[in-house]
Task: structure prediction
Amino acid sequence: MSSIGCLPTVNAALNTLASVLLCAGYLCIRRRRIAAHRVLMLSAFCTSTLFLVSYLVYHAGAGSRRFDGTGWVRPVYFTVLVTHVVLAAVMVPPVLMTLARALRGRFADHARLARRTLPVWLYVSVTGVVIYLMLY
Result:
């Protein structure tokens, strides 16, 4: 196995961790545990950023992996893959804006944007793991 051969597993682990951190952060803000929410959401952002770097390193060195599934699972896989890729690209600016608003203390604007950003971010993280499980 090459030095980057383990990165798909690392990437799936990072996506799993990001999903857990996002859910925990959401639960904390619902319970008004603001300090914990802040730590968890910053951790989710750092984890997702680390994922992106690892993902780019892997694909720059190894290229793409072909999906060999057949039958009904094939259109399911490509539906998940396409929605994942499109939303992953689209969500970067809203995540950065949501984070920036929180860090600037613009909490009403932050909360309003986060209500739309969180579900998409969570979908992208979870479907990243689903894609890994379907490929490997």
User: Anything to note?
Assistant: The mean pLDDT is 96. The two ends are 15 Å apart (CA to CA). The chain has one domain: 7-135. Residues 7-135 form one domain.
